[in-house]
User: Fold this.
Amino acid sequence: MSSATGKGLYLGIDIGGSGIKGAPVDLDKGEFASERKRIETPKKATPEAVAEIVAQIAEGFADEVGEDSPVGVTVPAVVHHGVTRSAANIDDSWIDTDADKLFTKVLGRSVVVMNDADAAGEAEVHYGAGKDVKGVVLMTTLGTGIGSALFVDGRLVPNTELGHLELDGAEAEDRAASSVREDEDLSWKAWAERLQRYYRHLEDLFWPELIIVGGGVSKKADSFLPLLDLRTKIVPAALRNDAGIIGAAWHAKHTKD
Assistant:
């Protein structure tokens, strides 16, 4: 089996509500070293069921990524010292699960678990839209909910969960997530009005140098970002759906180091 350190490859695996995806990542380039593998997330997405699929994906890349390197895994949850403290679009049994310990046992190797939005942010800050930006950088992922990742001079402030800030008397993600636009059949203009209030609130709190917008809807950034009137530069994510896997791999290597 080849050495990951020699090749510069680390494995990143991104757990989502519908699919679990993984790929070896060339951290010198910030890109996949081979085509990713994807397996459907089980309907009963318990930690044990998901861990078995993560192990399958890891085994599929056994010839490319050395067994001495840690694996980075993202979960849609707050992760505090390797323990998942919440659960979004996965089974509630994740709450208070020692995910680091579980994955390390099932995979038989060191595993580093982190929040999915934080992982996407790591990728964007080190390889994408936020590369070389000093000061405060804020990333939000607009999807089923709103995820967030906050950085100061390239260093992550983990588990910010800024989708849960209040907006118009409700949680922001219940008013301004991409899924809400679809469910309520909002026009781009109507949705942008909600995003305007949300992002203005964020910039008043954090005074960022840059806001990065991720999530699948970022592919249509030209339909809504120009409608926003902010003092902060706001741009779409550069790495799109690859960001979670790349960020997980980056975090695994640098946590080990």
Remarks:
- DSSP finds eight helices and 16 strands in the chain.
- Residues 129-237 form a domain with the Nucleotidyltransferase; domain 5 fold (CATH 3.30.420.40).
- The chain has two domains: 4-116, 129-237.
